[in-house]
């Protein structure tokens, strides 16, 4: 690009994962399907398929479609703590049969799950919200730690700001660390590289792209939102462990809580369908977000978004989002020259 300083932002994390740029797509359940993962990977970033609780046959279809669209390495994201053990076992077995090169895990660190896929020769990235969980993931054999701050969209594991947590983890590990939560600009990327992180991990910034599988209504709400429009609540908890909090754009469900966002017991919540995805009902208070294929009362669903949503004002192709972030990061890292 003309006028663009030629600064390589390739980090050891890029070398480890086999990508060119230190920007990782978060494996957003439902949202990060093959089209988005391929777009990010082909733009030089690192693609992940968000496959939490998906049927192994869908995982196989998505992996095949991704491989047809890119020859870049990628990871499959699974959440052991939010997946029934038999399904998790079948998901991992299918991924291993397919020769998936890497997994990203999130929430509770399960050493036996990490050991199984490491034994099969796969790389493991683990997203964590605390220093303690980072240490456990490293001890269990993880290759990369993703430090998730409280600013993050979707499920939020810890309560510290992303950069504070990343620095605390970096002080204790030699593993590459990616910063996650509220990262939407090249300025954020430059800041991550300045603290010696290996890169950034972005969800919301890629949710609002043409290739993401989120429903257009969800993308539009992210575009309209300011960072202050998001709330952290555990009321959207059906099908997750009690107390698991999510960051979403405030909606009619959270407004009815009158500020009582945390401390909800799934057993006290009614099971009532508000939407459908094909044959499957989507319950009010479930953690399903509206996808391209969802119909019903989309406003009442979990409209996941991070605190960086306010800086995202347009739905663009994912490659453009990657290129913009890189250009901004390079300018932020170029020393000012006096004429
Ligand atoms: C729509 C959405 C769905 C998500 N689903 C998952 C998921 O299935 N697995 C996972 O590990 N993280 C998931 N996350 C969290 C991301 O991994 C990441 O922590 C978060 O997007 C980072 O914050 P940001 O959205 O501000 O970039 C999700 C986030 C969003 C926005």
Task: Explain how this protein is built.
By secondary structure, this protein is of the alpha/beta class. The chain has two domains: 12-212 and 312-332, TIM Barrel; 217-309, no CATH class. It has helices spanning 12-17, 34-42, 56-69, 85-98, 111-119, 131-140, 162-170, 186-194, 204-207, 216-224, 252-255, 318-333, and strands at 23-25, 47-50, 74-78, 102-105, 123-128, 144-148, 154-156, 177-180, 199-202, 230-233, 245-249, 273-277, 280-283, 294-296. The strands form three sheets. An eight-stranded parallel β-sheet has the order 1-9-8-6-5-4-3-2. It has a three-stranded antiparallel β-sheet with strand order 7-11-10, with no helix packed on it. Strands 13-12-14 form a three-stranded antiparallel β-sheet, with no helix packed on it. Helix 3 (56-69) links the parallel strand 2 and strand 3 (74-78). The structure holds flavin mononucleotide. Flavin mononucleotide (FMN) is lined by residues 26-29, 31, 50, 52, 77, 79, 106, 127, 148, 151-155, 180-183, 202-205, 207, 289, 304, 306, 308.
